């Protein structure tokens, strides 16, 4: 069991509707030491991958991606979810649907920050049905860049997102894959590492 | 001239309407080495302050705050701008107006992550009219916690935000204070460090 899984068992809370609250250490309050352990683990799992940029999506992916970036020595680009008056120039745009917020968002990256020479590691905090991730992959593809790998903190293994992404041949490294959970008992069952 | 000011002169772009674009290194693509230098500088400027938590606001404050937090050895809490279905329980809420997005936002922090024992360093990327910052201060006050200091990357010195905050007696440390800029010539004039 790795440090993220241990932390989820200690401080994660299972809520009705398949909600796993990890807001005390992952996506509202953020434990930077834990993020560094996660960054180290991704660096090990993507050993040998020729990564020159990390791509994430606002808001809760940003902290994890920035700390992880220190282990790869690369800059981070975060995709925006809505058009800002400051985000001018040509943009890559993908439409994604949010499971949590129950609405559609546009995922946007300025074209100047992704090009065909980029070898991208995508980082995000959660993977459930995978719509946000699919949007990020679409954007990397639009830029002619390469997805070298995908690092996720918590994957909901009982939803389809992870399986689809692995079926498509991507190296997806989720540090904690929750295969089952129960809001009544608080039970959380992780997939065993291969 | 510090590393952030140098970088602004090198890569910042002045646009009409008093817009300073720093999206190639600060708030879309993010230079993590630069963030570490900024964190070091804030640690020096807040030497002796008894800080146990960093508070920032989504989205572009998060990366800077997380990297800076490593220099203080404290967790980061980021305020959210809109209500999420995952953000249940009691919340501190402040209403703020965004200069960039020309709309009002609610700034929200779950009550369990701020209490009267917290000595908070507020970190954000930009300070212009200061509405977002005022919202964060209001939230710290609502929690009965203490604002130990405020670290801003880029302050627009020709707008009122910074002056108001200093008038109120807060230790506000902006790493680059732009006192004047011109979109026609590209001129950027920084306030000299005291």
Approximate helicity band of chain A:
25-40%
Biggest β-sheet description of chain A: 6 strands, mixed
Principal-axes shape call of chain A: globular
The strand line-up of the biggest sheet of chain A is 5-4-8-9-10-11
Please report which band the strand proportion of chain A falls in: under 5%, 5-15%, 15-25%, 25-35%, 35-45% or over 45%.
25-35%
**SSE order of chain A, as H and E?**
HEEEHEHEEEEHEHEE
* Unreliable residue stretches of chain A: none
**Mean pLDDT across residues of chain A:** 93
What's the CATH class label of chain A? Answer: Alpha Beta
Structural class of chain A: alpha/beta
Number of strands of chain A: 11
The Cα radius of gyration of chain A reads: 16 Å
Domain unit count of chain A: 1
Q: Quaternary arrangement of the chains shown?
A: homodimer
Per CATH, the architecture of chain A is 3-Layer(aba) Sandwich
Notes on the structure:
Two copies of one chain form a homodimer. Chain A is α/β, with parallel strands linked by helices and 194 residues long. The first copy, chain A, has one domain (3-190): Rossmann fold (3-Layer(aba) Sandwich). In chain A, 28% of the residues lie in helices and 33% in strands. The first copy, chain A, contains five helices and eleven strands; from the N terminus they run αβββαβαββββαβαββ. Chain A has helices at 3-11, 32-45, 61-72, 131-142, 161-167; strands at residues 13-15, 19-21, 29-30, 53-57, 76-79, 91-97, 104-110, 119-127, 146-156, 172-181, 188-190. Chain A has a six-stranded mixed beta sheet, with helices on both faces. A two-stranded antiparallel ribbon of chain A has the order 1-2. Chain A has a two-stranded antiparallel sheet with strand order 6-7. In chain A, β4, α3 (61-72) and β5 (76-79) form a beta-alpha-beta unit. In chain A, α2 (32-45) crosses α3. The longest helix of chain A is centred in the first third of the chain and has 14 residues, at 32-45. The A-B interface holds A 15, 19, 21, 23-25, 28-32, 35-36, 58-59, 62-63, 65-67, 69-70, 74-78, 80, 84-88, 100-102, 109-110, 112-113 and B 15, 19, 21, 23-25, 28-32, 35-36, 58-59, 62-63, 65-67, 69-70, 74-78, 80, 84-88, 100-102, 109-110, 112-113. β3 (29-30) of chain A pairs antiparallel with β5 of chain B, so a sheet runs across the interface.
